Predict the 3D structure of the following.
Amino acid sequence: MHDMTAKEFFDLVVLMRRHQREYFRSGGRDKKALQYAKEIELRVDTEIKRVELIEKERRSPRLDL
């Protein structure tokens, strides 16, 4: 997997929310929508963690002596 652009991340979140809404509109019967939402949520969470690590390193750069 490659590093996501801001647009790719945005599009992924939009897709995740679409599947979440489909699941809730179905009253919990659309298990496929739930499965898709969970799979996308994992990708979103992974990207958030990746960017958080980058930001943490920017705030506290390591000193390699």
About this structure: The chain has a mean pLDDT of 93. The longest helix spans residues 31-59. The chain has two helices and no strands.
